[in-house]
Each structure stands twice: as structure tokens, then as C-alpha cells.
Task: structure prediction
Amino acid sequence: MSTFSGEDHTGLMDYLRVDNCFPMIEIKAYTADEINKQIYSRENVWKTLLKGESDRWKSINELILLLKTASNLNLKLKSSIIRDEWLEENKSYSYKLTVVL
Result:
């Protein structure tokens, strides 16, 4: 929930209310390039924790350190996305993402 709160706080979700959205979801592992872009944006654009992020991290420095030490930085990932529809309320879903080294 804190990730959603942060995106909502930045205005990145201003284009449509969440309750008007479709049940299509996407799950993906971030590539090294995407993580480096996140690091850049947190060091240069959004330099403080966003609304809800303090539920997970104590400071912006802790978040940036987490990003800089992310295991995905050492993987050669292609952008692999799992797509599905979550149609049933209170149902659990599980997925498997295979990473080849």
C-alpha cells in the first residue's frame, strides 16, 4: 500500500481513479537500467520519502541504499512481464518468474 500511496502522492496516478480501473495486473522484475533510473529520480527529483513510504523506510537514504544494493543490478534481465486479471475478490494468486543466469 505504501508504494501506491507514493505514486498517488506524486501525481503519477492522476489520469484515472483507482476504483475506475480494470482488473488487469502486471508483475515484473526491475532491470538494472530501471533501478538506476529510480536511484537517479530519488536523488534528483523526489528527494524525500513520499506519502506512505515512511511505513516501509525510515529515510530517503535507506530507500536509496536499498536500490543501490538490489540483487537485480547483478542480473541480466530482459523485460519479462507477467500479466493476469484479478477478477475474484479475496482470492490468492501465485506466479513463477524464472531467471536464467
Remarks:
- The first helix runs from residue 2 to 10.
- The chain has three helices and two strands.
